[in-house]
Specification:
- Strand 1, helix 1 and strand 2 form a beta-alpha-beta unit.
- The chain folds into two domains: 143 residues, Rossmann fold (3-Layer(aba) Sandwich); 112 residues, 3-Layer(aba) Sandwich (Rossmann fold), CATH 3.40.50.1860.
- The chain has eleven helices and ten strands.
- The strands form two sheets. Strands 4-3-1-2-9-10 form a six-stranded parallel sheet, with helices on both faces. Strands 6-5-7-8 form a four-stranded parallel sheet, with helices on both faces.
- Helix 8 crosses helix 9.
- The protein is globular and about 55 Å long.
- 42% of the residues lie in helices and 16% in strands.
- Bound molecules: D-glutamic acid.
Length: 276
């Protein structure tokens, strides 16, 4: 059910465990320049990638409830970990449509693979959930999936080491084996990873296409808004509002520059627990 207070001019809420979801915001800005976007990064509780389903569900629900309470017309879960583990619950409890990044990532991977062998990189929680492998196999039975948990990559991104020998060494450890196999599509199954795309492409080799779910997620959101008659009127110029649950450090600036994101003052605000 759609709350009566949301209209086509209401904002789209986007959340992530931290700054990684800004890669999805960047794609949304390109695809839907007329939409107001309200982004909340849960930097006080990042990383989600090593946490349990119950915790990830609770964090996701607390953030989404806050943003829907403030009038968002749709929630975009710009975090693979929260999409893999929290999305079913959010779809159950929220009164607005919810889109995640797994389904768009699966669609993009299926479009990219010729050999029918897809590699998926993600956090421990995302890979442990089996969400990508299940969704890929449901969409194309018989597809082969190699799933790799890469817990060192988020800290390397958060340290800004996009191009660094430490990052190259970690990526080599995670993906070198793929070079001798026939996987030809590699899903960057964490919204931090597109910031490592250059290093990842070198490590994976030229036979592997990197799949970023962000662009496909933005197209899915656009389609869904059209279906619901909720797309912002054409000609409108959308705004971007960034907030975090803890003080962002200089790294936010680095990411905003890398992604070309213009936004006003960055706010810090807490997320109240569900029962308050
Ligand atoms: N950005 C999150 C994701 O897409 C990973 C970061 C974290 O572990 O919280 O999975």
């Amino acid at each position: 059910m759609q709350p009566t207070t949301t209209t086509a001019e209401s904002p789209i809420a986007v959340f992530d465990s931290g700054i990684g979801g800004l890669t999805v915001v960047s794609a949304l800005r390109r695809e839907l320049p007329g939409e107001d976007i309200v982004y909340l990064g849960d930097t006080a509780r990042v990383p989600y990638g090593g946490k349990s389903r119950g915790t990830i569900e609770r964090y996701s629900e607390e953030i989404a409830a806050l943003l829907v309470g403030e009038g968002a017309k749709m929630v975009v879960v710009a975090c693979n970990t929260a999409s893999a583990l929290g999305l079913p619950r959010l779809r159950e409890v929220l009164s607005v449509p919810v889109e995640g990044v797994i389904e768009p990532g699966v669609e993009a991977a299926l479009a990219a693979t010729v050999t029918g062998h897809v590699a998926v990189l993600g956090t421990k929680a995302t890979i442990g959930s089996g969400a990508y492998a299940h969704a890929l196999q449901a969409a194309r039975p018989g597809i082969r999936v190699t799933s790799l948990a890469c817990p060192l990559l988020v800290p390397l991104v958060e340290e800004g080491l996009f191009e660094d020998e430490l990052t190259d060494a970690a990526l080599h450890r995670y993906v070198a084996a793929l070079r001798s196999g026939d996987a030809d599509a590699l899903v960057m199954g964490c919204t931090h990873y597109p910031l490592l795309a250059g290093a990842l492409a070198r490590a994976a080799g030229p036979a592997i296409t990197l799949v970023d779910s962000a662009a496909n997620c933005a197209r899915t959101v656009a389609r869904r808004l059209d279906q619901l008659g909720l797309r912002a009127p054409s000609g409108r110029v959308g705004s971007l509002d960034l907030s975090f649950t803890d003080t962002p450090d200089n790294f936010l600036q680095v990411v905003r520059l890398a992604l070309g994101l213009e936004a006003g003052e960055v706010k810090v605000r807490p997320v109240p627990p569900l029962d308050q």
